[in-house]
Design brief:
The protein is α/β, with parallel strands linked by helices and 664 residues long. The protein has 16 helices and 16 strands. Helix content is 52%, strand content 14%. The strands form 4 sheets. A 5-stranded mixed beta sheet has the order 6-8-9-11-10. A 5-stranded parallel beta sheet has the order 13-12-14-15-16, sandwiched between helices. A 4-stranded antiparallel beta sheet has the order 2-1-4-3. Strand 8 (435-443) and strand 9 (446-453) form a beta hairpin. It is rod-shaped, with a radius of gyration of 60 Å.
């Protein structure tokens, strides 16, 4: 017989929802129950087989002995009767035969005797009431003994036969007592087998428990250690064994399970020490990290305050410089004009840098809300071609546009900024006689806009950093005419604002491909193209109020606006502005006010007063503040903002739109 295989399963990982999860204990119970069941089968089955085999053999031997003894007694009685009735049967002495038959019955071994021969002699003794099924027949022939063969006793004319039987004796035994004894033997065998099985079961159960309980405790301890409770310990001595004597406990302590439990306890102690050391190290590292994080946050706040203050302080004089330079340029002599143009170029570069910084600040402050709608790529590409055709022609780069009649869902202005920057970079880094392809194609339910060039390409080591601020691959000299390294950083933030990202695929001397994916739009969702703006109207007679605490800006604004034919009033304080706005007969078309006035006065109060006192005037904030808080505040107030330094052309365009709305 092959014993059933059994093994101690390795505990599986436990998913705990809390520190009191019952999974380890239940798993230990399952392991112990499985092992105990296997040990029980392994011990009981062989014992049962041996007990049944031995009991069957002994019972069969006992029954065979009973059968042999029963048959031997019956045959012995039959032979004895035959030996005692030979002479009487030979002589035909019926009374003697009847006495022999009755004497056989008195022995109690048979219930009926029949003596007969072929000459018609037939003697019986015993009842015939028992059923034939309960009787077993034994037959013995009647032969003459040697002494019976004397001629003196032989009747006249008889002959003595040698060994030929002269008659037949039949004895009948009742099998009721035999069957009863057979049944008792069978029941005794079954009882002995059951006692043997019960004894084997009890012993195997005791042995299995003695093996399974320590293993269950060990498994429970291992599961607790796996669950993170390193204070768990394994004790293989059961509670009922604690009352045993010291010698017995010492003997059991030498058991392999006790050694295994001791090893597990040592492992648990080491794990607990390691965990305590790790927790101490984590606490120390966390404390250091929090301290450094606080220092970094403090440094970031200080840097942000410094940049905000520096940006405002730089924009103020730069705005004034722009106003003065634009006012000097028409009256400059031929000798002065190149110097004035150089000043104007430097001012423009500084303005572009500050505008880019402002754009990043606005994106980081999340004050921009894209106006999502249908955008026709054909119209978008037409605008881009008008913007970049001249630069491409000057660089002798061919621009190709393939819109394929597609449309996307996006913000038209922000998307124009992204693709325009990518096209500008591609034209700048493509050699003469090269090609820049701007194409669109459908891909997985979206539209992929790609800007491809066959320029110098970007090495893989630089591709992960080109979207960082101020990072430029080929402008190590920091030539401001090649940009400041903020364009891709701004485009990356705008793409994230639109729910997309800019991908790049490039290799050295193999060109570059920049792409962005946007949701596809139905042509009916595309807004019609706006009508072309009317030509700028003259500014003569436009009444403007300028509020700024910087005297240079007031002088520059007065001079520039006066050259354009505007009627200008200037003031440096909030009270002065409120007085002019509320004066009798006062009428202003445009109010240009700084956000931060002297003595912590707020320009928003002037804008609110202008909206209330001069409802037909156009209120405009002109400020150098670029902090996220200020930008959120202006956005919530719905105020038009011009960021310093304001390009004179941009200011003139704004005033021209106001002029066209005011009747002459």
């Amino acid at each position: 017989m092959t014993a059933p295989s059994h093994r101690l399963a390795v505990p599986a990982p436990i998913v705990r929802s809390g520190s009191d999860a019952p999974a380890p204990a239940s798993r230990a119970l399952v392991v112990g129950a499985s092992l105990q069941r296997d040990l029980f089968r392994l011990g009981v089955v062989p014992c049962a087989a041996v007990a049944l085999a031995l009991t069957g053999w002994f019972t069969h031997s006992r029954l065979s002995t009973l059968e042999t003894a029963f048959d031997a007694e019956g045959e012995a009685v039959a032979r004895q009767v035959a030996a005692m009735s030979d002479l009487s049967l030979y002589a035909g002495d019926l009374p003697a035969l009847q006495n022999v038959a009755n004497a056989a019955l008195r022995g109690g071994q048979v219930t009926r005797v029949e003596i007969s021969n072929s000459a018609g002699v037939y003697v019986t003794a015993g009842p015939k009431t028992a059923p034939l099924a309960q009787l077993r027949t034994f037959t013995a022939p009647v032969t003459l003994r040697e002494a019976s063969r004397a001629s003196a006793f032989a009747p006249a004319g008889s002959t003595v036969a040698g060994e030929t039987p002269i008659g037949l004796v039949q004895t009948f035994r009742d099998t009721t007592a035999y069957d009863r004894e057979r049944t008792r033997s069978l029941m005794a065998g079954i009882g002995i087998a059951m006692i043997a099985l019960l004894a084997a079961w009890a012993w195997v159960r005791h042995t299995a428990r003695a093996v399974a309980q320590p293993l269950r405790r060990i498994s429970r301890t291992v599961a607790a250690l796996e669950a993170g409770r390193f204070d768990a310990r394994c004790n293989v001595v059961a509670e009922d064994e604690a009352e045993r004597g010291p010698a017995e406990r010492a003997r059991r302590a030498q058991h392999e399970f006790a050694n295994l439990a001791h090893d597990i306890n040592r492992l648990a102690e080491r794990l607990q020490r390691n965990r305590q050391q790790s927790e101490e190290r984590v606490r120390e590292a966390t404390s250091v990290a929090l301290q450094r994080m606080a220092e970094a946050e403090q440094a970031a706040l200080s840097r942000a305050r410094f940049l905000a203050a520096a940006s405002h302080d730089l924009r103020q004089p730069l705005h004034a410089m722009g106003l003065f330079i634009d006012g000097l340029l028409p009256t400059a002599s031929p000798v002065q004009r190149p110097a004035v143009l150089r000043l104007q170029e430097a001012t423009d570069f500084m303005g572009v840098l500050l505008d880019d910084l402002l754009e990043i600040s606005r994106l980081d402050a999340q004050v921009l809300t894209p106006a999502i709608g249908g955008v026709s790529l054909a119209a978008l590409f037409d605008q881009l071609e008008a913007q970049h055709a001249a630069a491409a022609a000057a660089a002798r780069v061919r621009l190709l546009w393939r819109d394929r009649g597609l449309a996307v869902r996006s913000d038209a202005a922000l998307l124009l900024r992204i693709v325009g920057n990518l096209v500008s970079n591609a034209v700048r880094h493509t050699p003469s006689e090269g090609t820049v392809l701007v194409t669109a194609r459908r891909r997985n339910g979206a539209v992929r806009i790609e800007v491809r060039d066959n320029g110098v390409g970007i090495a893989p080591i630089h591709q992960a950093r080109i979207f960082e601020e101020f990072y430029q691959v080929s402008n190590t000299e920091r030539d401001r005419r090649q940009g400041f390294g903020l364009g891709l950083a701004i485009c990356s933030r705008i793409a994230a604002l639109l729910g997309s990202r800019i991908s790049v695929r490039s290799a050295l001397q193999a060109g570059s491909t920049f792409a962005i994916e946007l949701p596809v739009a139905s042509p009916r969702d595309v807004a019609p193209v706006a009508a072309e703006a009317p030509a700028s109207a003259p500014l003569a007679g436009l009444h403007c109020l300028v509020v700024d605490d910087d005297p240079a800006i007031l002088d520059g604004s007065r001079t520039l606006l006066a050259q354009w034919g505007c009627l200008v009033e200037c003031t440096a304080t909030r009270d002065g502005a409120l007085a002019r706005l509320g004066a009798d007969g006062a009428h202003f078309d445009v109010v240009l006010c700084d956000l931060q006035l002297a003595h912590d006065e707020d320009g928003m109060e002037v804008i609110d007063a202008a909206r209330r006192l001069q409802p037909e005037a156009l209120p405009v904030l002109v400020s150098g503040a670029t902090g996220p808080e200020a930008l959120r505040r202006l956005r919530q107030g719905g105020v038009m903002l011009l960021t310093k330094p304001v390009a004179p052309a941009k200011l003139r365009a704004l005033l021209a739109t106001r002029r066209s709305a005011v009747p002459a």
